Automatic annotation (TrEMBL):
It is found in: Mitochondrion inner membrane. This is MICOS complex subunit MIC13. One of its GO terms (biological process) is cristae formation. Component of the mitochondrial contact site and cristae organizing system (MICOS) complex. Pfam families: QIL1 (PF15884). Belongs to the MICOS complex subunit Mic13 family. The lineage of its organism: Eukaryota, Metazoa, Ecdysozoa, Nematoda, Chromadorea. GO terms for cellular component: MICOS complex; mitochondrial crista junction.
Length: 107
């Protein structure tokens, strides 16, 4: 099983690299022809770059991120300490339930 897994991982990696090389060759990325390179760059700007420009506008500001991170951290700390605070009563309830079941079941 270990051998088959290693062969599968290796094959997937080789296929990924081969696919990337094939795609770059098909798009003439390695061409010395400047006209093809300029055409490829224009297509890249037209189809890919606009999507990368739109997303930073939708990102929250630094202050919003810091505020939300702080409140999330604080609520997480509050939950942890509430659980720690309630452990004795929760343990007592569970123990009483187990004892009650064993007494009822034993009769």
């Amino acid at each position: 099983m270990g051998f088959l897994w290693r062969v599968t991982k290796f094959t997937a990696r080789v296929a990924l690299v081969a696919g990337a090389v094939k795609l770059s060759l098909d798009n003439d990325v390695w061409s010395l022809n400047t006209v093809k390179g300029s055409d490829l760059y224009c297509r890249l700007k037209e189809y890919i770059l606009p999507g990368t420009i739109v997303y930073p506008q939708k990102l929250p500001s630094k202050e919003e991120v810091l505020s939300e991170a702080g409140s999330s951290w604080n609520s997480g700390v509050d939950r942890v300490f509430n659980v720690i605070e309630n452990v004795p009563s929760s343990t007592q309830q569970v123990a009483n339930g187990i004892i009650g079941k064993s007494i009822i079941g034993g009769k």
